[in-house]
Design brief:
The protein has helices at 15-18, 22-32, 47-52, 59-71, 89-92, 99-108, 115-126, 131-144, 157-166, 219-225, 230-237; strands at 42-44, 76-78, 83-85, 187-188, 193-199, 214-218. By secondary structure, the protein is mainly α. It folds into two domains: 1-154, no CATH class; 157-237, DNA Binding (I), subunit A (Orthogonal Bundle). A hairpin with a 4-residue loop joins strand 2 (76-78) and strand 3. Helix 2 packs across helix 4 and helix 7 runs antiparallel to helix 8 (131-144).
Amino acid sequence: MAESVQFPSGLWNEDEFRVLTAPLQGAFLTLCLRPELGALGAMPVFLGRIALVTAGAERVDVLDNLRRLALVGWIVLDEVEEELFVPRFMEFNGVEKNPNRLRRAITESHAIESAIVAAAVADVLDRLARIDANRAAQRLRRVEAGQRPRARPNIDEEIRHTVYVRHGWACAYCSHQFAPAPTGAPEDEAAGIWLELDHIRPYSLGGDDAAANLRAACSTCNRRRGVDDLDLWADKTGGA
């Protein structure tokens, strides 16, 4: 089932949007509602599909509108690689405030082929106060430089659930308790944190995604730990 997209109605209050011509405003809003944008806001340039939902538009009209939107900074367009990115898409949809959607956005960033789009996505991810987003930005900058690192797969949902159950749906470090969730990351909205998976041996240092190498950790502890050695982390916190 397609995920709901928040219509960016607040744009009507922004002078930079109101000065756009009506066709460009319509083109941008239509683009923002495309399901291909996923959680990240990047997609291949499907001129035909966009034209189909734009009254009276031909492919050449769609491309012209995209070019004009790119010129004024509302989108990033790479015509050679046929990819585009809406830099404010995650902001419109509150992706940075939703750990599950942000995780999906980071996963979607692995599919980016365009160095131009990769650079723009990296800039947006770098502005988020999230270690996982910042690491994704670093990887995208290697794509921008023409270096293709190995893609990191998603951790299987069954493994994720197994680790959470093993730790009683609590952080292995600070013991903060979370309510069980059927899928995804359990959240404590009042505390503004969520439960994640922490690699005992960090992925960047050769650790794998097996359940034996994973611990449940709240988002705060997981970010404080970073890629520290587990024993060093235990010393910092008074014991694991």
